[in-house]
Amino acid sequence: MVVDADVEPASVSPRRSVKSRAGTDSRILGAVLAILRAHGPNRVTVESVAALSGVAKTTIYRRYANRDELVEAALDSQSAAPRMPDGLCVYDRVKWTLDLLRVALSSDIGMGSVSAVLTDQDPDFTESFRDIINSRSQVAAEVLRAAVEAGALRADLDIDTAVSTLVGSYLGAYLRHGRVDETWADEVVHMVCPGLERGSAAD
C-alpha cells in the first residue's frame, strides 16, 4: 500500500517528524538505487519509485520535481568514497580498495547502471556514474602509490593503468561467470603483487 508519508498527526513531536522525513527520504532514494542496480536509469520513474518504496507519488513530488532529480539525488548519496580504516597493512590496504571498487560496481550502483554507461543511454547519468567510480578510483590510486613507495609494487608502475586493470578485472569476472567469487580480491592482490603478504608494513 502506498501512503502519503508526509501526513503527520498533530501530536507528533518535531523531532519525530524530522526522523520520519529522513526515513521517507531513505526509502525513496533506496528504491531509486535498487532500480538503477537492476535496470539502469531508463527504468527510474516516479511511478516505479513509488511502487517500490511504498511512498506516495505526491510525497515524492514534494521533494523531487521529476525523475532526473531523483536519479541525481540517488547518485549524490553515493558520491563520497568511504574512509579507509586505520592501521591496515599494505596487503589489506590494497584489498580494501578492491572491495571499494567491487561494492561500487555490484552493490552501490550495480551492473544495470554499468550497462547503461557502456551503451551511453543517458549522457548525464554516464557523467555522474563516472564521477562516483573515479572518486573510488582515486582512493585506489593513492593506496597503490603508497604500495610503490613501500616497495610492494614496482617503482615504474603506471598507476592509472593499474586502477583501470583492477576495475576491468571485476567486470571481466562478472561477464565471464555471471558472478564474482568472494575470493576475487585476494586473488587479484596476489596477482598484482605476488610478493605481498598480510602483515606487510603499511609505511
Automatic annotation (TrEMBL):
Residues 22-82 form the HTH tetR-type domain. This is TetR/AcrR family transcriptional regulator. PANTHER family: HTH-TYPE TRANSCRIPTIONAL REGULATOR BETI, HTH-TYPE TRANSCRIPTIONAL REGULATOR RUTR. The lineage of its organism: Bacteria, Bacillati, Actinomycetota, Actinomycetes, Mycobacteriales. Pfam families: TetR_C_11 (PF16859), TetR_N (PF00440). The keyword Transport does not apply. Gene3D superfamilies: Homeodomain-like, Tetracycline Repressor, domain 2. The keyword Transcription regulation applies. Residues 45-64 bind DNA. Keywords: DNA-binding, Transcription, Transcription regulation. It comes from the Bacteria.
